[in-house]
Amino acid sequence: MTRLAFSTLACPGWSLEEAIDAAVKLGYVGLELRLLDGALLSADLDATDRRRVAKVMIEAGVAVAAVDTSIRLSEPMNFAELQQYLQMADGWAAPVVRVFPGQGTLDELRRGLELAAEAADGFRAGVGVETHDGYAAAAVLGPLVRELEGAQLGVIWDMLHTHRAGEAPAAVLDQLGDRLVGVHIKDARPNGEGRWQLVPLGEGEVPVGAGIDELASRNYAGWLVTEWEKLWHPELAEPAVALAHEMTELRRLVEAVRPGAR
Question: Which domain holds residue 44?
Fold first, then answer.
């Protein structure tokens, strides 16, 4: 049904080669590149490092599931920077460059989406806007993206954020339709202080299993990416332990897809 990857947010202390080695040993077939050798991936990565990424990933048989950025479309955006990331993604055969919607107004986000679609024109990779920031709900973000017909523009579904927004998986996918270009998976539970505590998959309340069921019923064949946000939350378990657990649980959920959903 899908391919399993992890975001390098999980391993801020690892080199790219160590992340690839872990992926191979644990059964992941892709990496989503947010960090490279522990540092946030930069649009101005030099040609030598770009070639190195392509070489070591191809040799290991591990794909680049996405190229992740900090770009926020409803805030002042560097058009050339986004094109640099798109060029990088094309060089690595990555299908999508991840951006955020930001906290700006609807009109500001619309303009940012138009610019992103313009930036992506002519590249093989598209732009994926994550359900995040002020636009965590698919009911808001999905229709905005669908306004731009024919654009290399889609939505990356973060299951935690849409759950926090009160949306069930079926409702999310109804809104996104064929604009779904990636899925981020993590689990969490309320901590009693108005915030959410990240926990190992299966120990929180995010309906990941229901989400995977819905994806299967709609013939989703893209990436499922586990986001263990160790960089932002140093208190989380170390990546060697956490990524093994996430893979075991993901495999269990994929194998448990209800009959007829595949």
Answer: 3-255
> CA angle, corner 247, sides to 243 and 253, nearest 5?
145
Domains identified in the chain, total number: 1
Instruction: Report the distance separating Cα 73 and Cα 85, nearest Å.
Output: 14
Distance of alpha carbon 89 from the chain centroid? 14
State the chain's maximal CA–CA distance in angstroms.
48
Q: Which stretches within the chain are classed as H helix?
A: 16-26, 47-60, 79-91, 106-120, 138-146, 159-164, 169-176, 208-217, 239-255
155 contacts 138 by C-beta, under 8 angstroms: yes
Q: pTM score, two decimals?
A: 0.96
Q: What is the CA radius of gyration of the chain?
A: 17
CATH number assigned to the domain comprising residue 220: 3.20.20.150
The predicted-structure confidence for 164-203, as pLDDT tens digits, reads as follows 999 999 999 999 999 999 999 999 999 888 889 999 999 9
